[in-house]
Design brief:
118 residues, 0% helix
Length: 118
Amino acid sequence: QVQLVESGGGLAQPGGSLTLSCAASGSGSGFSISVMDWYRQAPGKQRELVARSFRGGQILYVEPVKGRFAISMNNAKNTVYLQMNSLKPEDTAVYYCKIEDNTGRQYWGQGTQVTVSS
């Protein structure tokens, strides 16, 4: 059973940076990540997609984070990252990673809180 463990959330000042990590464990030898997503959910709002990366290289970002966030993956470690720069108070949310493996199964992380405040 694949499990995703997120880390890296916390408190940052406006203009600051944080890097989120999402490590997949419990996978078999044939496991690989096909699609990786980062979502976020702010209080009172619906969960929304932030960034998506396909194994083939295509990357998508939602407009509010373009130029500030970067999604990446370490295939050898089955770990995905979200580098967040120039953080704004409106980036405050619980951030979730989601991956789709090479069989089409989807897995969610437990979420990590990001708070941007002075």
